[in-house]
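Task card 7
Instruction: Convert sequence to structure tokens.
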Amino acid sequence: MSAAVTICETPRLRLRTVTPDDAAFYLELVNDPSWIVNIGQRNLHTVEAARAALETGPMAQFREHGYSLYIIERRSDGAPVGMGGLVRRDSLPGPDIGYALRPAHWGQGYAYEAAAAIVQHAQHGLRLRTLYGITSQQNQASIKLLNKLGLRFERFTRRLPDGKETNVYRRDFRQHG
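Output:
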């Protein structure tokens, strides 16, 4: 899979599948201090390592599960502003919503706009029954966003393998028909 597939669009944003060509952007994103503090150190230091991580991470998850993290780009100019989507983790019984924007794009409503589109895609496109979200107790912006999306605190846990303290949020969808 090398050509990007559009997953969903909002008035200002497009969420599309990751391609190997996104490696330079991914390298920049995962090495941003806000990513490292809120998500974790990825130890990626070259474009080649970032490309390999995309191929074994989001691209492989999309092939296996039909969902993954996507590139969030502005529709007006195609500029990538972050990543967001659904992640399948062994530590959760279902997919969880994830998102990260470059700090230059914070405060413009992009995180909510993209995350709300991801929730709609999960519910109506993928017809998931349950959506999870995880975040550290210190990440108040993420906690507020998860609550705004209708996810509610379920439990506190320690994430493996790093043992990081994590809040788990959950939203159940009603399925019609």
